[in-house]
Write a structure and sequence with these properties.
Six copies of one chain form a homohexamer.
Chain A lengths: L15 E2 L15 E7 L14 H9 L13 H4 L1 E7 L7 H17 L2 E7 L5 H12 L2 E6 L20 H7 L3 E11 L7 H8 L3 E4 H7 L1 H12 L4 E6 L21 H9 L6 E7 L10 H19 L4
Parallel strand pairs in A: 1-3, 2-3, 2-4, 4-9, 5-6, 5-8, 6-7, 8-9
Helix pairs in contact in A: 1-10, 3-4, 4-5, 9-10
Chain lengths: ~325, ~325, ~325, ~325, ~325, ~325
């Protein structure tokens, strides 16, 4: 008998709640350990706020996840020890204080031997996540699903940090290995031609949705595998990579994007890569209906866990 | 001049209301008779309740159906005598009493010479529907659209009946001809690998959404026709076979499913088979927006009627 | 610094989660212990289902509760040890199995020395709650807030149990001390004059909303205190006692009811009585907007806890 | 056992559907006959359209009406023969054609010996309703619940007919007996001081919400009774007389209005007057939430029926 | 730094507001001039009203449009002088008066040397738009995106004008060059086979969605280019051409339609044609969720502007 | 003929748009000038974000405001020159930069001889508003409508500025004349007894909702007038002073608050005081339904303008 989705306390997929500051070595078992960390921060969004409720929405939807992945043929919750680390502290009025908190929480978790699946929050949180991961793993290959390149220099006057700039900052700080940085799903109007040009100049392999339609997963995935190889890989999934029909609950929706099937197919195709960290961001439940965006995000989280469960040596 | 969709009493497609207990021979004309029966029962759902409002929602949406099917080139309301039999009695607290009521209502209707299009209600109602149909037609070929196999043994402790078990019960009772039992659209996490294995062991030809994408309608439909042949066919359509972007209003949505176009194309492709009964279930209007799920369900009902209108001798 | 309402795991008011089966003596401190138990069952509703999401909705809203009650001048979370016992097991298709589970969970909690605040669920759950409480405390004085008397004999054919019958069953079983049974907020159309007459015959002191408007809290509360005196008191609060403008998210709303202020004022006025158990039922979040019904329910829970915190000897 | 509110075909309170053109004498029984007529027309609204769905929304909500009025102590569906006449034909692009249709339908119904409860539709429909009633009964005393006087001369250039002008037109046509014309609930900004002045000049006894608060029902109702006396009375209830907290689903909401309790108390207080017709208008379900506006409107309809059921000789 | 989408006054894409009657020559610069005109009229809809809020909804969503079109490689707001002309006067109760107003406003704008992007409003407004454009340009090639042919003769008794008839009226009046009239996206039930036959007889090249799926954009677009050639082209985009999953906010949704990507791809493919006017109609924001329909409509507007910006000599 | 509320560009009540930096003396007429300034900042909220859409929501609702105040008997748009100054620049990630921008914009406006009605935004914006006003007028009497005292010292660690602290900061900075500082509508749980005690120590005259119910407007208003006298008065209206039934769209709703009628009555009662500035904050449209909160806020704005229009010498 499986537990009823409408019943019980809403940790991620009913995993045990272990607060961040208890993510030391004490819980060590034989299985690889995963911590799910929420980051309920949305003060860096440029259009609709609401992603602060992302972790809660995704956790609630995650109770619909039965445990077995029929396509990947793996049961991630059996292969892994998954814990819910709750939410990082955030300071809505101060992005620098928030960044410090996120980085510290993530570093604590990583130092405890966990890998971390992060639930955002707006995309500004990527920077401290990459800081913590790069500190441990060195510069990271990155697969970045998004409608927007997020490589702006300044989105708000004099403000280096926002949800449109984290990838540029990360490259400047040497956190991203630009030899292996994919942007997938990019589309929609931009401020000018320089938006794309800048991303390319910074080293990104940008795959617009239009190009994805031409390539298909069957051509794109081998290119990613060939390029990333054994590098430590971080995957960041901005839910607005997906079309608003499938993911309405987000801050800056762009029409003409990935279907949910296409999104999941691409994530599944990352099997075999050395993913060391991942996140799902920009889910804004106040704009959802029937929970469909949160359900998609929860399923993406399940696919990420499945990838980890299939890693050799894991 | 067509009647205005926002006006009038909401029977299915403005058909005449004939309560179940009046579905005797008195209304017989020359045309084949169809009864549309609602079954507003949702106490067997494992996640979101709300399908008790399915019949009402679909009826309201059905007022948008003009009468001519341009793809099939048939006017079902001219070829058939369609009546709205209202709703079967249900007992929210007692599934056995509800089952008895559904079976009796359906048997009454079938014995009156009608064929029945049923509007659910959650999928648990399939069992008494199959009981009534098999009593008249013998074991039934079944085309079953769904995200889930519904062949669990027990979903709730000690409870043989629920919305996850009707197909196993039906097979155990000999209601389904397992030589011709298709499951289409299956996907998403399950409790374990045994969920799919059990369905296969029970005899189902399971077509996951992933396999459907590989086959396409052009390969799948001939396989169905070849297998089903002249057998009496029952078609059960759980709306969660469709992706939540197209059908958000359902109890246990699974991302990555059929589009509305794909769903309708498959139903249209059943033309020529000996369909003797059909249903549309798991539409939960409290979770709908802009009525899009109910509108899709009403159109599926229209396609079912069109299939009947094209049957030879009908 | 108070924790942020949008952050963290959603137990009731961030209380520690202690599953029902761990509600033994081990956690005993010096303070009175309270367990908050969810009962996510809604299969007995006669109109809109959805109350199965009541416990989750109220827990989420409870994160808005800061800890100090300025009117009662008490800090319940300091005076009491409040735990969240999670949700009782329920069986959507079987009310008797559900009743057994609720009664067992409640008895376990009560036998552990806790008092219990229950979050429903539809009002049918009152019966097993009263069974468990009466087993410990004997027949109970009851203050029952509701738009409906819930003293029907049969709501569904041959079914003694449903959300319209628990009070009659409880009286028949001797669980309610009919010398001290108040119904407050009753209003709206009924099946016939016998609905009210039956309640009166069974011994209820029925205070319709119309009578409440004439009496006011200042006359009604002394009457309750005079009648209840030192008896063990159970308070059951069906949220539809409140007007749908203030509590839209419920299954059978009745217009013309209590405002939220009036509801809270009445609950506060129970100060000094020997309340031994309480519940808040019929909150159906799928019909809420902006969470206002869940927020009201969470505040009612806070007022109940405040009553306990002010009990002499507690 | 009462029928379940979520089940069955949605005529008003499950009354028998008798189309307008069959409202002849054939159905005559011993009881007074009432026809409920929908008028789904909203092209005359000046702000939010949507009232075309008013009749459907109110019918659906009416299934929550059990049959006995406990305050008035009457069972209207036993005392009266209530029929649902369906909806009048309307022509969205042509208000004159719509007016002709409404007047004809109403005259047909009245000539069949019925009294008519009309469900709007926007308030422009009042004019043809009054035309038909005045043709039978002569100039009518009118009790008019509304936030707005609806006595504008022209709302749109060169257009005598709209939802802001019907009362002026009706007075000009001699349909209203201005010796007995009450406007209740008037409030909010107007185009200028002349809006109120004009209503007063035309003969209306305007009771603003502010004045109502001073008077109370206990003073206002006797004034109405004294003034109206035995005259034939028409009651028109624009739902925006009620505060948007209680009735959000309307086209031109005005804050600071009647509560649902106050509205119902006033309607109940019309007991004893010679009401010959009534309507409930401006319910716009697309703007409703949890159906609370439609539920209120259905209850107002129930109160109107109760008034008729208590008329001497009826 | 781009302006924040949630900030500022909501003209279309922050363009300068120039009321219609000021659209004379005074603002002339060197760039081609475009006026965006809203037409908030929805009294001709046959199902759900609400399109009167279309212009407002699309304007609000347009603030998400950054200025550069990465696929077409053009910055329309730099290449063009785009102004927001506000809304045409409409008369909800009188379609003829509304038609006169729309035609006059459009003629004023066209005579000022502007081209016009119109934001509806229901599709009935197409007729006066075509009248004004044909007066200037002669009979127009038309590319008409829609689920419905809109070539009915009469939708309401005796009413030549409604949202289902404008294309027939336009052909009768010689406004459309039927040698180059495409209907794209047609689907769903119709009143009978004559609905499609009539459109074909009138000269339309009807591309049903089913045919589009067979052809693809790569075959359809060359056919359009070959047929339209240098003729003056008017493009009318009824948002219900798009599937309700992507565009729920419309009056008469039909399942099984274009995705947003397909819609935009087709519009982009009109590059090189001599488009002289265009509109986006039937967006009904009260039925939207998360603004996804308005966002799609705003993007379609952006693509139309991009087409203009790429016209030679512009 | 009044303009149609669904038509046209949405400045506040259709007032002329004059950007902040043009608010110099050039527009000077004989009438007192008012600027309506939006401040779309919500990064300081502690619960639900969304108030960044407050200015837009209130502007849209303001189109329902006809121009004459029947209770106050004044036409504010005739007596005053009202302009819409658009929105102040905000920086979501930096509250200090936002504060500087708000203060500068407000100072510019005040120095142009305008008085300012501000539309928030969360309540943190009060501080720079008071800074700008106090710079011109000296320490201000303040009437502060709210459910919360907003006199916390620190809401987030080390952060002096947030939406729970502006009143303490303002008192510390000498901006508020604590001899005349009223808090009205305070209620709900707080962190501890010190929350209220601190407000009292700081000099506030706190009127909880419970006390308001005892006093009534008839006693409270004279107290305010007696205390404030001729001092320059600033009125800040946090919409959560109103009960969530009437104002659901806000970040930290508290049940049991003011009705809309009570709120407006109190504002009207400020007639005669020397109000020099005012605001309406914490309206969060993503949580609204049917626009009722925005409509209430727009009406409060209208009442503020009416107060100014009645000031002697204005």
């Amino acid at each position: 008998m499986l537990p009823l989705p409408f019943s019980g306390i809403t940790t991620f997929a009913r995993s045990t709640h272990v607060p961040v500051n208890e993510c030391g070595g004490v819980l060590a078992g034989d299985k690889p350990r995963i911590a799910v960390l929420g980051v309920p921060y949305d003060s860096a969004t440029s259009s609709r706020s609401g992603a602060r409720f992302g972790p809660r929405g995704i956790r609630e939807a995650s109770l619909l996840l039965w445990g077995y992945n029929n396509v990947q043929k793996v049961a991630p919750f059996e292969k892994l020890d998954v814990f819910d680390a709750g939410d990082a502290d955030v300071v809505p009025v101060d992005i620098r204080a928030t960044y410090a908190s996120i980085e510290m929480a993530t570093s604590t978790i990583l130092s405890g031997g966990y890998r971390q699946l992060t639930l955002g929050g707006d995309h500004s949180i990527l920077l401290p996540l990459l800081r913590a991961h790069a500190k441990k793993y060195g510069p990271l290959a990155v697969v970045h699903f998004d409608a927007h390149p997020d490589t702006w220099d300044l989105e708000y006057e004099n403000q280096p940090y926002s949800h449109g700039t984290p990838c540029r900052r990360a490259i400047e700080e040497g956190l991203i290995d630009v030899e292996a940085y994919f942007q997938i799903g990019i589309r929609g109007p931009t401020g000018g031609p320089e938006d794309y040009q800048d991303a390319l100049k910074l080293g990104a392999r940008m795959v617009t949705y239009e190009e994805y339609r031409r390539l298909g997963a069957k051509n794109l995935l081998p290119e990613i595998h060939a390029c990333v190889g054994p590098r430590p890989l971080y995957v960041t999934f901005d839910i607005d990579a997906v079309d608003p029909a499938y993911a309405p609950a987000t801050g800056t929706p762009e029409v003409g994007g990935l279907t949910s099937y296409e999104a999941i197919e691409l994530v599944r195709g990352l099997k075999g890569l050395n993913m060391v960290g991942c996140d799902i961001v920009e889910v804004a439940p106040p704009f959802d209906h029937a929970g469909i965006t949160s359900i998609l995000a929860a399923n993406l989280g399940f696919e990420f866990l499945s990838l980890w469960a299939m890693q050799p040596g894991r």
